[in-house]
Each structure stands twice: as C-alpha cells, then as structure tokens.
Amino acid sequence: MTPRREPHRKPRRALRIGVDTGGTFTDFILVEGGRVRVHKVLSTPEDPARAILRGLKELLGDRSASKVDLTHGSTVATNSLLTRRGARTALVTTAGFEDAIEIGRQNRKELYDLAYKRPLALVPRGLRFGVDERLDERGEVLTALDVKALGPIARRLKARGAESVAVCFLHSYANPDHERRAAEALRKAGFLVSASSRVLPEYREYERASTTCVNAYVSPLMSRYLAGLTRKAGLARLRVMQSNGGIISGRTAGEEAVRTILSGPAGGVVGAFEAARGAGFPDAVTFDMGGTSTDVSLLRGRIGFTAETEVAGCPIRVPVIDIHTVGAGGGSIARRDPGGALAVGPESAGADPGPICYGKGREVTVTDANLFLGRLDPARFLGGRMKLDEKGAARGIARLAKELGLSPLAAAEGVLRVANQHMARAIRLISVERGHDPRRFALVAFGGAGGMHACALAHILGIPAVVVPKDPGILSARGMLTADVVKDYGRTVLLPASSARAEALEKLFRPLVERARRELKAEGFPRPAIERMVDMRYQGQSYEITVPLEGRGLRARFDALHQARFGTSNPARAAEAVTLRVRAAGKVQRPPAARAAGGGKDGARARTGHAPMIFEGKKLRGARYERDLLRAGDRFRGPALISEFSATTVLPPGWSCRVDKRGNLICEERT
Fold first, then answer.
1. Phi and psi, residue 193, nearest 5°
2. Amino acid 109: pLDDT
3. What span, in angstroms and rounded, lies between the C-alpha atoms of 440 and 250?
4. CA-closest candidate to residue 73, choices 36, 43, 33, 32
5. Helix (H, G, I), strand (E, B) or coil at 460
6. What is the dihedral of CA 19, 457, 441, 566, to 10 degrees?
7. So what's the pLDDT on residue 170?
8. Can you give the C-alpha Rg of the chain in angstroms?
C-alpha cells in the first residue's frame, strides 16, 4: 500500500502530530485546536515504526488515528545508506561510463593517510551496465538509443537479484528522451527505476549519477517503511520532512527518498529559526544536541542552504539545509584512548543499552557525567516517568577515573570539557572559518541535551546570549509542523550572462514553473508561492553561487554576492548562468506560538528547592526550577537547574536567566 494523497482543504478539527525519530528518543508533538501536548519514547533503531506506534498509542489513548495528519522526520534513508542495507541496486548508463561512479573526482578525504581506502561504490561492478547511446552537451543525438539491448540487461539484472535500477545517461539533463525510454522499458521488466533526468536534471555526470544511485538505493526501503507505518497506524495523511526544510507527501518521499537524507536535523533548524526570530535574534547559531550526535547551523536572518552534501562517501546533489554534524551527544561514550588520554565519542550508547544511569548501560557517557555533577535531577527526568540510577553512574565514573589516574570529580568534569570542545569546534567551523564572528550571534539550544551544555559553549565561544525555547527536546518535531510543503526543481542551461535577459529567462523557467505548479496542486496547493533562482559563475570557474531572481540587475547581484562570500569580484569578466532553480511552497497552518503567562518577577513560585551542583571542582548550592511554573518576566541567577518534561537547562554560576513573553529562556553571562 502506498501512502495516499489527501486533497487540501480548509483547516478542520484534525489532530496534527509531528514525530522526530532520533538515535535515543523518538519525540512527539500533538496539536489539537489551540492545545499542544508533547511526548517522548525510547527509540527502536532496528524498527523505527515500533517506537512511533507505541508513542501514538500513548498519546491518543482510545482514539483512532484515522483523523491524524502526521509529519515525520525519518532516519530510514540515512541509516540504510550509512549501514549499506538498502535495496540491491543496478546502474544503467552510457556505454563506456560504467566506472564513472567509482572513479569519482579522484579526491581523498584523508590526504596524508597512506593506507586510505575510498568507500566502496554503492553499485558493485557486476551490476553496472552500459548501453549504446550518446547525446552531446546540447542534447543532440549522436548515437540513437539501442532499446533492444535493454531486454538482455533486464534478464541479467534479475538473475543477479537487482531490485532497483538507476538510469543515468550522459547529457540527459539537456534531452531526457533516451532516459525516459530506457526507464519505461526497465519498469515494464519489473524494476523500480530512478532516472537522473527526473531526480537531478543538472550537469556534472558523477554527482548526478551518485545522487540517482542513492535514490534508487534508499527509495524501496523508504517506500515500504512509510506504507507499513501508514497502514499499521491507520493514518489519515502522512507527510515527511525533507533535507531542504520543507515537507512532502509520503508517496513522494517514497519515490524521492534521497531528499530525506537529513530529514530530522532539518526539522530542528526550521524550529530553531522560528524560535530565534520570535525571541528577537534573527542572527543565531542553532545547537541541537541529542543522545547520539550534535547538529549545528548558522542563521543570518534566514536559513542557510547548500546544493550538495556527502553521506557515507556518496555525493548527494540536492538542496539541503547547511548543517554540520559531530559525534557528540548525551549518549557519547567516554573512554581512555590508547595514548592514555580521555576521549569522548563518536561511539554512542544509543537507546539500547543507553547510558549507565538508564539502568542497562555499562560504559560511561556524557549523560552519566552530567548526573554525577548534579546537572540532572534524577527524580525529574522525563517529568519523573524515568528514574535515573545515580549510584550506577557514580560507579561507572569511578571506574573510568581509576583508568585515567584521576579523581572521579576530575574525570566527570573532563568528560564534559572534552565533549564541549568537540561541539565548539563544530560551531567554529560554520562561523569563524566562514568569516563570521560568533560574538555577533545568539545560540539557540535544543534537543534533549542542548540546554545542559549551551551556556558552557557560549562561554567558550564568546556568544553573548543563549535562547532555550519551550519544550527544547521536542523542537525538531515542532519544526516539522511549522514547515511548508516545499519542492525544489533545477535545470542546467549554460547560458552567457549577457544572454540571460528577463524574456529569455522567463521562457527557460516556464517548464520548471509549470511542473512545480502541477505537482504542488497534486499535493493540495493550487496556488503555491514560486521562487526563482539562477546558479551563476565567472567564466572558467568550476562552481557557482545561487542568485535570487528579483526583477532586473541579476549580474550586479551576482557580483555583490561573490564579493560578500569570497572578498573579491570582477564585474568586467564574462559570467555564465549555469542552472535555473525553482522553489515552490504551499503554506501550511502553523501550530500556535508558545506563550508564557505574565506577572513574573524572580521565579520564586517555580523554585522547587536546592541541591548541590559542581562547577570547576567546587560544590555549590544550586536552585532548582520547574519550567512549566515560570512566567514571562521572571529573572534569576545561576547556579540553577531548570527542569521540564523534554529537557534540562543548566545555568552556571555567573549567568542570569530571564523568561520572555514566548516562554523562551534567555541566558546571559554577567560581566
């Protein structure tokens, strides 16, 4: 069963649920009318649907899911690529180019590693087949497609157990006819087919072939997973978060699964963008620390995008939110490395067995260190639903300390210090190394562990303010309900900038815009917002800059963007319009914005007591606050621990916190 489409209609009294599947927890947010509920369950990585079905049952109780509109951030495509457990995939390409996907660009990630081995090609040599056909760069036929050769190829593919086929012919972006005919023949033979002229009609055959192969590899698994989830849950409608920050129908996600590779992290950035803007910080660094990893992104009044990313050694050329990930999370394992030093991550305890304090783990994690130092309330974790094992965590810290020759206190603080430096390095990568001073940005902290480390990171980087939104552990799921239905389209044109006049561009854009309107109408949005962009470069350059098409002055905007990004421009040099891009968006109804009750003063009504907290080797008396009882206008100082259902926020000594009208915690270091 394929997830079905449901016509767009006026807002009805349906249940809207956002679900984000993480490595440790699966997060839920339910919106019904003006009411919002949040929920968490432990993830089941071997079968993500199990955790979702369990969470839905706990959220809905006896109510049916037949009126549920569910938006899902899924790791299925990512994990199948990382673990190489996707469909058995073949590649049909222009004869003589069968090995292009393995040869690649001849670059190596580890330049000085003499024993470096390139990742294995996604499609093995025995499943790569060449067909006689050839087009030139203008799409003119040099050699007609040998359709008869596809029959024997199909039989050999079946004999070798292929399930899915990627079709990628040279220059098919200029003329898709050969690919369409080949894809049709292979579909009739019983294969699932991804054609590059549909997935990525752009030049650079290696990236196009790689992206198409990834889509062919992950789509069958994704399609089955989404169909099974829809059927088992009995959902009214299923939508899936894409890497570009928009959502698409479950059916489209099953067919174009390559667009969901960074599904979960993208939802977090969308949610953080809305939170930062609402708190008055349009320029911000998003900091999403979960149980397994940390994702960071830079906002400069808008969400940043990149045209290409790489996962498991495979280049993927689809629009994605510009996110950098490091293997440091609450479940990251601390150990003594072969040189005798303390190391943290990238290995994670995940959801099973999890940290020692969860009751089953055996290895010390970042979460265990936080608990040992009094930075987690063992009685308030997940709103008191999950008790933490303090004694077990202390025993684990003591074992690690003995291995390192340190006191337990020094070992626990060392674990957090190492983890914080890993995450600070990631933030420097997206800010300092790109010419941005982090002292000009706020830090938006979310994820289950983000609030525990945010102030320490801000101190390291000189960031002046930390914003912790309401329900930070659920922000990625909330972002998915905030996202619009978005689809991106591209087409390579290779046109001199002098010829890229408004009339000529309008004619070239027309097929993309018509396709965008047609497909968004099928998603239920007859009048989508259309944004046009042009990838441009100076003649002789290898890569481009995406320039918004806003009336006239395209060339001047390109020169200005080039100057801003690289510190140089050359208005006298010839330029080219390389690829046309269209983004179509259908606006969805957003969940109600968070609001905090007013009348706050010093947070006294939310203070539940005091407990020891350890900072820099000193045991201090820290206040404990129940976040749900805080009001707009409340102000207090650290050290303090602020607990809520989905996360905990640590306010170190020397820091102050205020609650704004949306319920955000605004934390600032006192000078």
1. -125, 135
2. 74
3. 40
4. 43
5. helix
6. -100
7. 96
8. 26
Measure the CA–CA gap between 485 and 242, rounded to whole angstroms: 9
Q: Which one-letter amino acid corresponds to residue 467?
A: V
In 3D, which of 217, 289, 321 has the Cα closest to residue 457? 289
For the record, the structure tokens of 395 come out as 């025993």
Is residue 456 left, alpha or beta, with left meaning phi > 0 and alpha meaning psi from -120 to 50?
alpha
Which residue is listed with tokens 């042009």?
Answer: 534
Residue 534's nearest CA partner among 564, 568, 500 is 500
How many CA atoms, within 13 angstroms, populate the side-chain half-sphere of residue 449? Answer: 31
CA distance 89 to 74: 22
Residues 536, 569: Cα–Cα separation, whole Å: 13
Cβ count near 83 (within 10 Å): 9
Q: Give the C-alpha separation, 362 to 290, whole Å.
A: 20
Helices (H) and strands (E) in the chain, counts: 16, 34
Strand 324-326 and strand 320-321: pairing? Answer: unpaired
Residue indicated by tokens 């939802």: 267
How many other C-beta atoms can be found within 10 angstroms of the C-beta atom of residue 577?
Answer: 27
Q: What is the pTM of this model?
A: 0.89
Alpha carbons 115 and 121: distance in angstroms, whole number: 18
Q: How far is CA 11 from CA 7, 34, 591, in A?
A: 12, 13, 12
What residue ranges define each of the domains in the chain, with the CATH number in brackets? 1-261 (no CATH), 484-586 (3.30.1490), 604-669 (no CATH)
d(CA 312, CA 150) in angstroms, rounded, equals: 31
Between strands 192-195 and 237-241, the pairing is unpaired
Element (H, E) at 57: helix 48-60
What distance, in Å, lies between the first and last C-alpha atoms of the chain?
A: 61
Phi then psi for 488, rounded to 5 degrees? -110, 140
Measured in degrees and rounded to the nearest 5, phi and psi for residue 565 equal: -85, -40
d(CA 539, CA 555): 13
- Are 367 and 355 in contact, with CB atoms under 8 Å apart? yes
Average pLDDT per 10 consecutive residues for the chain, totaling 671 residues? 36 77 89 88 90 93 87 90 92 96 81 80 94 94 95 96 97 96 96 96 94 97 95 92 94 94 91 94 95 92 90 90 90 91 88 87 94 93 86 95 95 96 94 90 95 97 96 94 94 88 87 94 92 94 89 87 89 94 92 81 92 95 95 94 94 96 94 75
Report pLDDT for 2: 34
Residue 520 corresponds to which tokens in the numbers above? 């968004």
Contact of 261 with 314, CB cutoff 8 Å = no
Q: How far apart are CA 151 and CA 293, in angstroms?
A: 46
Distance CA 81, CA 133 (A): 30
The set of residues, in sequence order, having a beta carbon less than 8 Å from that of 604 and lying 6+ positions away, is none
Sequence-distant (6+) residues with CB within 8 A of 224 are none
The CA distance from 586 to 591, in Å, is: 16
Comparing CA positions, the residue from 586, 591, 589 lying closest to residue 523 is: 586
Place of tokens 């098919």: 172
Q: Taking Cα atoms as reference points, which of 419, 375, 367 lies closest to residue 393?
A: 367
